[in-house]
Design goal:
single chain, seven-stranded antiparallel beta sheet, disordered N terminus
Length: 132
């Protein structure tokens, strides 16, 4: 048989129980690796759905949370970088205010799934950003 070997399939990673992510509430961080080395991804819930992003501001490549897991500003409607105040839409990652207006956070695929012990949030890694 000829052809190239298949790339390994990246397994979904269980992040937390679905009820642990509340709309506009605290996020959950997870260690990751990208082409630049060690990284962190985070997951939040907005409008009933889980969303994941690389924890790196589009303005300056620094982690965004105020303290661990604190990504939303006080209204719970926007993600906000603690360093320079860039404001992002939680469902698109688009910067809508601050120094990097129009730029976007690096999206990470996330979804709710049924498991044997209830619903859970899963990260679906890709070739460029994977679990550490």
């Amino acid at each position: 048989m000829t052809g190239t070997p298949l790339e390994p399939v990246l397994e979904p990673v269980r992040i937390c129980a679905s009820e642990d992510l509340v709309d506009g509430g605290d996020g959950v961080r997870h260690k990751a690796v990208d082409k630049s080395g060690e990284a962190t991804v985070f997951f939040v819930r907005y409008d009933g759905k889980p969303f994941g992003y690389l924890n790196r501001c589009a303005h300056v490549p620094m982690e965004m949370d105020w303290s661990e897991g604190k990504f939303f500003e006080s209204s719970g409607l926007y993600l906000m970088c603690a360093t320079h105040g860039a404001i992002y839409e939680p469902d698109t990652g688009k910067c809508v205010g601050g120094p990097c207006r129009g730029a976007r956070l690096r999206r990470v695929a996330a979804e709710d799934r049924d498991t044997s012990d209830g619903r859970a949030v899963f990260w679906l890694p890709d070739d460029d950003l994977r679990p550490a």
